[in-house]
C-alpha cells in the first residue's frame, strides 16, 4: 500500500508555500508523500518514530537493556511506556523468557496481593485452588508494573522485600519462594510529590528509581506525527479491508498543530475512527474543535456529500476551476472559496483529470 497526500501546486492553484512534514518525503505542492513501507519507520517493540526526542529514549534503552537494573519509566498516559518496557525486555538477556505485566490501577486492592504473589487453596473465600502470582510467572524473565503509583500503600513493603531479597510468600503460605526477575515500573504520577505527601513509600521509590527514563509526550515529538499517521492508517485499513492511500494535507496540518493531551493513544484512536468513517481512498474526517470530541454524524455526512458534488462538477469541467466553463461558476462560488473547500476536503483537480483520462483510455 502506498500513501500520498493530494498535493496542490502553489503556482497554479494557490499562493500558500509548500508545507513540510518532517520525517517523510515532501512533494511539490501543499502536501506530503507518505509512500513507502511502514516497516522502515518501526523501531524495536513496534515503536514508530524518528524524532530526536524518541532517539534519545531509545539510546537509554540500549544502555540499560543489557543490565538487570530496575527501570522506572516516567510519562503521561498514552505515551507508550509499555512499548518501551517491551523494547528493554527484547534487548535484554532475558528476552527468551516471559514478559509479565500487571496494571496496578486495574486490580482491586483486595485482590492485589493475590495477583502479585499468588495464593494457596483456601487462603480466602473463593480461593478454590492454588494459583501462581505474577512474580512467580516472571521468574527468569521481566516483570512490568504499570501505574505503580496506584499500588496500595500497605503492599508496598512486601514488594520492596521481594525486590531486595528476591523472595516472597504466596497468600496463605508460610513457605518462602525465591524469584529471579527484572523489574520495570511505569507511572504517570509524580512519585516524589507522593512521597512528600506520604502516599508512596520513600524506600520503595528509591529502590524503583535506579534508572529513570522520561518518555516525551507527543507534543514534544511532533516530527513523528506524520509517521504515526501513516502507520495507523495502514494498520486499521488493512484490518478493515479498506484501501486508503491519500491523506489531505490540511488534515495533517491540524494533526501537527494539536497538543494531543492523550498522546499517541489519542492519535491512534482518532485514526481508527477516521478509517471507519472514510468511504473512499481518502482519509477524510471533519475534525471537531477538540480532536477527541464526539463525532458529529451530520457534519461528516455533509462533508462527504459536498466532496462528491465538487468532484462531480470537476469531472464535467475536466478539472477546470476558473473561467466561464469552470467549476467555480457552475457551483456559484468564488474561485478562492472553491479552492478553500477543495483543500479542506482533500480534492485535487489534477487527480480528477487523471481519473478521467484513465477512464477514457
Name the features.
9% strand; elongated; alpha/beta; 361 residues; disordered N terminus; Rossmann fold; Helicase, Ruva Protein, domain 3; 2 domains; 41% helix; two-stranded antiparallel ribbon
Would you write up a description of this structure?
With 361 residues, the chain is of the alpha/beta class. It has two domains: 38-43 and 219-360, Orthogonal Bundle (Helicase, Ruva Protein, domain 3), CATH 1.10.8.60; 52-218, 3-Layer(aba) Sandwich (Rossmann fold). Helices cover 41% and strands 9% of the residues. It contains 14 helices and nine strands. It has helices spanning 52-65, 81-90, 109-117, 134-137, 156-165, 191-196, 202-208, 225-240, 249-257, 263-277, 297-316, 327-331, 335-345, 349-360; strands at 71-74, 99-103, 118-119, 131-132, 142-146, 167-169, 176-178, 182-187, 211-214. It has a five-stranded parallel sheet with strand order 2-5-8-1-9. Strands 3-4 form a two-stranded antiparallel sheet. The protein has a two-stranded antiparallel ribbon with strand order 6-7. β6 (167-169) and β7 form a beta hairpin. α1 crosses α2 and α8 crosses α10. The model is unreliable at 1-20 and 23-34 (pLDDT under 50).
